[in-house]
Design goal:
CATH class of the largest domain: Alpha Beta
Strand order of the largest sheet: 1-2-3-4-5-6-7-8
Oligomer: single chain
Structural class: alpha/beta
Number of strands: 15
Number of domains: 2
Order of helices and strands: EHEEEEHEHEHEEEEEHEHHHEE
CATH superfamily of the largest domain: Ribonuclease Z/Hydroxyacylglutathione hydrolase-like
CATH topology of the largest domain: Metallo-beta-lactamase, Chain A
Radius of gyration: 20 Å
Largest sheet: 8 strands, mixed
Strand content: 15-25%
Distance between the termini: 63 Å
C-alpha cells in the first residue's frame, strides 16, 4: 500500500505517475483507490475501484470479476463493515465483481437500475430495431439489490453520499458526491472522452449530464479510469467543446454531400489510429441520432448505422 497526495492530479506528469502507482493506493486516510489489472485501449491503466470511510465503508465500482482484484479490495476493507457497494454503471469493467464482493461483505449492491434502466424514449425505440449494434461490454446480468433515485442521500458514518443520475455514457450511469469529491465513473475522465454508443449511450443525455455536473460543488473528480481531475469545470468545458466540434465536423461533411458513417469516420478521424475507428463510429452514430432527433439530419432508409445521412434543408 502506498500514499499519494491529492495534488497528484491529471496532467502528463500525473498520468505517468499514475501508471507507476501500486494497484492499491490511499489518496487520503479515509479514501483508497484500488486499480484493477485490466488495462486496455478502452480502460487506460485499468478500472478504478474506490473505498470510502474509516470504520464504516462504501465501495464504488467493484470492477471486473477478477479474484485477484477481489482479494485486494478485501485486504483494504480488512474486516470493517461495508454499508454499500455503489455501481456507477453496469459495464463489464465496473460491475461484475459486485455479487462476489456482496457475498464476502454482506453489503447490498446499489445502482440506478439494471442495464436497460434509464434509456430515453429514442434509445428504447432504437434498441427495439435490433439492427443498430452497440451493447459493447454491457453486464446484461447486472441486478442491484436496490435501486437509487436521482438525488438520493445515503448515510456513511458522519458523512453522506449523494447519488446523481448522469445518463449518457450509459442510461443507468450515476455519479456519487462525497464531501467535495465526485466519483464520476466513465462520464468524466481526464485521459479520454467517454464512449457514447447507442442504444446504451445517448449523446443528448450525455451533454445534458455534463451541463448538470457544472452545478455540482466538487473540488476533485475521481474517474472510473485514469488520474484524479483537479479542475473539474475546465475538464467539463473541454469535453463539451470536443463534442461540439465533432458535431460541427459531421454537419460540415454532410453540407458537402450525403454520407454514411464509415466515410464520415474516415474523414473526421483521419488522425486517429485505425484500431479506434470502431469506437469512433459509435460516437458518430450517437451524434447522428441526436441530430436526427433535432431534425437536422435525415437518415435513409431509416436511422441505423448503415444508413445514408443527409443534411436537412432549413428554410
Amino acid at each position: 500500500m502506498v500514499w499519494v497526495k491529492p495534488y497528484m492530479l491529471y496532467s502528463a506528469t500525473a498520468s505517468e505517475y499514475f501508471r507507476q502507482m501500486m494497484p492499491a493506493t490511499f489518496i487520503d486516510r479515509d479514501l483508497a483507490l484500488i486499480r484493477a489489472e485490466n488495462p486496455s485501449p478502452m480502460t487506460a491503466e485499468g478500472t478504478n475501484s474506490y473505498i470510502l470511510g474509516t470504520t464504516e465503508l462504501a465501495v464504488i465500482d467493484p470492477g471486473p470479476d477478477d479474484p485477484a482484484h477481489l482479494a485486494r479490495l478485501l485486504d483494504v476493507i480488512d474486516g470493517r463493515r461495508v454499508a454499500a457497494i455503489l455501481v456507477t454503471h453496469s459495464h463489464m469493467d465496473h460491475s461484475p465483481l459486485a455479487p462476489r464482493l456482496s457475498n464476502a461483505t454482506g453489503a447490498p449492491v446499489l445502482a440506478y437500475g439494471d442495464s436497460h434502466a434509464g434509456r430515453s424514449a429514442q434509445m428504447t425505440a432504437l434498441a427495439a430495431q435490433l439492427d443498430i449494434g452497440g451493447g459493447e461490454g454491457v453486464d446484461l446480468g447486472f441486478a442491484p439489490h436496490d435501486t437509487l433515485q436521482d438525488g438520493q442521500i445515503l448515510p456513511l458514518g458522519a458523512d453522506t453520499i449523494t447519488a446523481i443520475w448522469t445518463p449518457g455514457h450509459m442510461g443507468n450511469h450515476m455519479c456519487f458526491l462525497w464531501r467535495d469529491h465526485l466519483f464520476t465513473g466513465d462520464h468524466v475522465m481526464g485521459w479520454a472522452p467517454s464512449l457514447v454508443s447507442p442504444p446504451d449511450g445517448d449523446m443528448q443525455a450525455y451533454m445534458a449530464s455534463l451541463a448538470r455536473l457544472q452545478g455540482v460543488a466538487a473540488r476533485l473528480y475521481h474517474p472510473g479510469h485514469g488520474a484524479i481531475i483537479d479542475r473539474p469545470a475546465a475538464r467539463i468545458a473541454e469535453l463539451v467543446a470536443h463534442r461540439v466540434a465533432r458535431e460541427r465536423a459531421i454537419l460540415q461533411e454532410l453540407d458537402k454531400a450525403p454520407a454514411d458513417i464509415t466515410s464520415l469516420v474516415t474523414r473526421i478521424y483521419a488522425g486517429t489510429p485505425a484500431a479506434l475507428h470502431k469506437a469512433a463510429a459509435r460516437n458518430v452514430f450517437a451524434h447522428l441520432a441526436d441530430l436526427h432527433a433535432r431534425a437536422e439530419v435525415a437518415a435513409t432508409p431509416k436511422l441505423c448505422p448503415e444508413a445514408s445521412f443527409a443534411r436537412m434543408q432549413t428554410r
